[in-house]
TrEMBL record:
Domain of life: Bacteria
Protein name listed in UniProt: TetR family transcriptional regulator
SUPFAM superfamilies, sorted: Homeodomain-like (SSF46689), Tetracyclin repressor-like, C-terminal domain (SSF48498)
Pfam families: TetR_C_43, TetR_N
UniProt cross-references to PROSITE patterns, sorted A to Z: HTH_TETR_2
Residue span, HTH tetR-type domain: 23-82
């Protein structure tokens, strides 16, 4: 897999300010929003997000004029990181590459649930993010299938639905979630 940019990367780059101080504030706001959405869902307070980022509410609104702009930016940034992760793990053995990426995908699902409450699936940003995610992760499954370590009778959509279903469940802690995900992935693995 090459370091070819995915369409979502263009969205993230276009929204990110060029000045270093403004870019730092933008990144801090994204990180704070991601954390707040994971904790409080789509109802997270914008004032709390600004406070967590160490900026004023005016800085938040300069970067994200509407709550929807903030949701879209957080979502696009998460998917962009997921796409970059696929490139980073691509040199691992096929099964390890696939499971390393799926572990990152499971973490991404926490943010996605909160953002999904606020955005509809028909939005342009969702389609671009979905296309980018499939372009990044799909080849990892295909490579694992060609290597004979993943079931040949499933496609990438099947795999994502399985992992998304698992991550939608409430767990006692991350260790329990990871254990359940590992059990499910044993059903995907072949030819040990």
């Amino acid at each position: 897999m090459t370091a070819t940019p995915f369409p979502v990367g263009e969205i993230v780059a276009a929204r990110r300010p060029h000045r270093k101080d403004a870019a730092r504030n933008f990144d801090a706001l994204l990180a704070a929003a991601r954390e707040a959405f994971a904790e409080h869902g789509s109802d997270a307070s914008l004032e709390d997000i600004a406070r967590r980022a160490g900026v004023g509410i005016g800085t938040l609104y300069r970067n994200f004029p509407t709550r929807r702009d903030l949701f879209e930016s957080v979502y696009a940034d998460e998917v962009d990181a997921l796409c970059r992760a696929a490139v980073e793990v691509a040199e691992l053995e096929p099964w390890e590459a696939l499971t390393a990426w799926l572990d990152r995908f499971a973490g991404y699902m926490v943010t996605k649930r909160a953002v999904r409450e606020a955005l509809n699936d028909e939005s342009e940003i969702f389609q671009t993010c979905r296309d980018s995610m499939y372009a990044a992760g799909g080849p990892l499954l295909e490579r694992a299938q060609r290597a004979g370590v993943a079931r040949p009778d499933m496609d990438f959509a099947d795999l994502l639905r399985m992992v998304a279903g698992i991550t939608a469940t409430a767990f006692d802690d991350d260790a329990q979630r990871d254990r359940v995900l590992a059990i499910a992935l044993d059903g995907v693995r072949t030819g040990r």
